[in-house]
Design brief:
The protein is mainly α. It has helices spanning 3-19, 23-30, 34-48, 50-80. The chain starts with a helix and ends with a helix.
């Protein structure tokens, strides 16, 4: 693994911890795909920084718990005609 991939994984983790962003929001912010963000955080980050991984795991778990609520709100906006 090159240093840039490890640095990217750490930068993603720090961004998500500081902002509480979702995987989708982090991907858009960094200009990479959601799968890359997920792979960086779930596979690469634990190998290079376990402490950061444990913190970002908490953010990912909270986002996962709230996912159904955000999806329902998006559907509501869609059918109400809100943007």
């Amino acid at each position: 693994m090159s240093d840039t991939i490890e640095e990217r994984a750490c930068a993603l983790a720090v961004y998500m911890i500081e902002t509480g962003a979702t995987v989708r929001a982090a991907a858009q912010h960094f200009g990479i795909s959601k799968s890359t963000v997920h792979k960086d955080l779930s596979q690469r980050l634990p190998r290079c920084n376990k402490h950061l991984y444990s913190q970002v795991r908490q953010v990912l778990d909270v986002n996962k718990q709230q996912r159904h609520i955000r999806g329902g709100m998006a559907t509501r906006r869609k059918y109400r005609g809100d943007t």
